[in-house]
Design goal:
Layout (H helix, E strand, L loop, with lengths): L2 E2 L3 E2 L6 H18 L12 H15 L8 E7 L5 E9 L3 E5 L12 E8 L5 E5 L2 E7 L11 E5 L5 E7 L4 E4 L4 E11 L2 E4 L3 E2 L3 E13 L5 E8 L3 E5 L4 E5 L2 E4 L8 E15 L1
Parallel strand pairs: 4-8, 4-10, 5-9, 5-11, 10-12, 11-13, 12-14, 12-15, 13-15, 15-20, 16-20, 17-20
Antiparallel strand pairs: 1-3, 2-3, 3-6, 6-9, 7-8, 16-19, 18-19
Length: about 270
Amino acid sequence: MGARPGGSTRGAGVPWLWALVLIIVGAVLLLDNFLLLGDFNAIALLPLVLVIIGAQILLRGDFITSTEARRFGITRGSVESGTLEISSGEIDVELRALPRDLRLREDQNALIAGQYAANTRPQLQINNNHAILNMLRSKTPLLSMADWKVGVASDLPWQIFISTYLGQVNVDLSEIIMDSGVISTGFGDIQIIAPPEVFETLFIRSTLGTIHFITPIGYNCQVKITGSRFLGVHIDEMRFEHVDPDIYLSKEAEPDAPLVEVQISGTFGDVYLT
């Protein structure tokens, strides 16, 4: 089992809008201190800052656009199965399968590789031939807001648990063998491409957000959707049929395709099956 540290990469810095707002607010407060604004109350501008912060969170899913990130890679060694737990808070998460021919040092297959926010390199434990990896927001500095982009080996079964409270989740499981999984958000959208096989039920949950579940042609998916009356359900009738209350079955499945059982639940938002 080896690792590749990789270098750091930086995205765009703080956008010009933030700099402009800070200059304007600072100038107004300075003028107010010298009593040059008459009866104008400079403190009245503070709600404007809150509005801009709220808009930033809605549009980007984070508070500040610090995108410092580091790359990582961990070799597979003798690992035959894995558990990946991601608790990202307000950071966006992307997950997909690694290319099958990806190689790291010593010509060994990669177990996991990708990009993470500063100081959030996956914590690795090995139990017999089972790898347990954790990526926790609590280990990340407050202003390290780079998206987490992760790729995992596609030739071994995974338990995958992803949670955010204010972030987007984009997961492509179309080439990943799943043992089990739970993917949930508090306030955030989820987009998932179905796995070809899952040994247990795959759970997808969102309190407030859109859930988009995509089933590749040939995959055999049975989806149960539950939620409040504020949860809208939209079905592509070319891809799914309604077989029982709250249960939908994918069409055009391969005869020998294993059944993938999925449970989707939500409170506010919409669910799309395509």
